[in-house]
Amino acid sequence: MHLSLAQCQALLPVSRADQINAGSNVFVDFAISDSAGVLIFESGDKNFVAPYVKNKELRRAQSKDAVTAKLLSNPLPRGLYSTMQSGSYTHERFISVDQSNESIVLDELIIVKWQLTAQKSIGAHKEEILTENGFRYLPQLLGNIYWEQKLLASINKYIPGTSDGWKWCVEKAKENDLGQWLHDLAHLSQEMHRCLQGFIHGDFHVGQILKSIQNDQMWVIDFDGDPLADAEEATDSLRDIASMCVSFFHVGAIAINYGANPEMIKKWILQAETIFLTKYFDGTQFDISSLHAFMRTLENRELKYSDEFLPKWRYAPEFAISYMKELGYESN
Predict the structure, then answer these.
(1) Model pTM score
(2) Among residues 157, 174, 198, which one ends one of the domains?
(3) Is 90 exceeded by the pLDDT of residue 263?
(4) Which of 67, 126, 207, 261 sits at 20 to 30 Å (Cα–Cα) from 77?
């Protein structure tokens, strides 16, 4: 079956549709009914993954279609393999924050993250390593869905009553809170790097940190990494730490955008960075100039990312770059 350019774009999340610039042939169709399933289609050198519905038109499945719920409530179509047994699910809720991949909560019990493209996943491998090494800050990995050893989706236990750092950390900034949570975050980071045994998270920022609404208990998610990172960066734990520190600047930008006092927020950013670094390195020497250079490099990429995928986010890297220049943080 040949797909037109418009059909290919309709099969991707809206914010990723421009990754397709030509029509394509369907590589594999894993049907779960006459009108729904999972398509894998080729464009360029990538195999895109698309849960779909097909009525009058072919389009990417939405929460009302419950395609993911149906898929996991029955034996998987021939050709797919899962390390998790099928269950019984009915209700879907999509996670609305911008992600390279698409996350769906089923019955408030599990969270399924569909990959944008089918490929061998280092992220799934990292979660397996963390689980084997007793890392306590990871939502329980329940299983993965594979096609020819390529990851299509990962499945974790859903933890209710949490928010990600783009919400809870912004509140910390607005309240000028520099308390125990920073020590907890640094300890989580230490344990993560210890348990990963040479790997790093790869896209480590407050948005990847879930926190209980009731207390400061934290979990870390999304180990797929940054596709823009080079090979050397992908194993350098300093990159994770730089990325987390950069996210304090983003949090500050959001807080200011919500009306917080800019001068208070600027002080909060520096204090949060200092407390986090002091606790994480715990007396171990590190090169602060290299860290700041990493931060500027990452922020230049963030500006490029926002221009390409999320223009409404541009104000955050603009603020961060401006403030980093003011502080004398130099890029490589």
Answers:
(1) 0.82
(2) 157
(3) yes
(4) 126
